Amino acid sequence: MVEIFLVDIVPQKMLQDKEAIGNEGEKIRVPKGIVSKRLSHSENGLSDLRHWLRSSPDGKFVYALAKDKNGFNQIARCEVKTGELKNISNLDFSISSPINIDPKGGKITFISNNNVYLFDLKSLKADKITDFGSDDLPLLGVPVFSRDGSKLAFNQFVEKDGRKNVQIKMIY
After folding, report:
1. pLDDT of residue 15
2. Which of 41, 42, 31 is nearest to 8 (CA)?
3. Residue 32 φ/ψ, nearest 5 degrees
4. For 149, what's the count of Cα atoms within 13 Å in the CB-facing half-sphere?
């Protein structure tokens, strides 16, 4: 089962432990004095879809994907202070990509059913912001916000001269 762990990184402790780097062919070791803390204690763990955790800009929450009772990937929020992990989305479909959070911390973006969605963290509602069908060339990767949050970029295959290539598309 996959859970969320936190590690305080102290650069001085890392630099003091010369053995942490290891030797060629060895795994990097955790530096002495660095301790991980299990944050979440969930019933089912996180989703098996490979994804990255995302932190709210203020550091109060960690966002991830977790399965619901139907086996759909949903957005889960873990409160850093308490470790409470709960699904905050209740979509009737499964999220099929990793997630990203906007710079202000108000929205999360993801891909599902070959479309880009925006999930509002206040209303807990998702809006489909593209209108591709299942016959359209697939989207891939994870949508990403611009630094100021005013734009959203995503990848989609395009076909030209009989060849399929990945293209970056923008939403303003």
Report:
1. 78
2. 31
3. -60, 140
4. 12
CB 53 within 8 A of CB 4: yes
Q: Specify the pTM.
A: 0.86
- Distances in Å between the alpha carbon of 104 and those of 41, 99, 130? 28, 15, 22
Structure tokens, 97 = 């990509």
d(CA 66, CA 46): 4
With 80 as the cut, is the pLDDT of residue 58 above it?
Answer: yes
Quickly count: other Cβ atoms within 10 Å of residue 1's Cβ.
8
18 by Cβ neighbours in 10 Å (0-12 / 13-18 / 19+) ranks as exposed
In terms of DSSP H, where are the helices of the chain? Answer: 11-16
Is 139 in contact with 116 (CB distance < 8 Å)?
Answer: yes
Q: Is the pLDDT of residue 22 over 80?
A: no
Q: Which residues contact 91 (CB under 8 A, 6 or more apart)?
A: 72, 74, 112, 126
**13, amino acid identity:** K
| Residue whose structure tokens are 């660095």 | 34
SS3 (DSSP) at 163: strand
Q: 3: exposed, middle or buried (C-beta count within 10 Å: 0-12, 13-18, 19+)?
A: middle
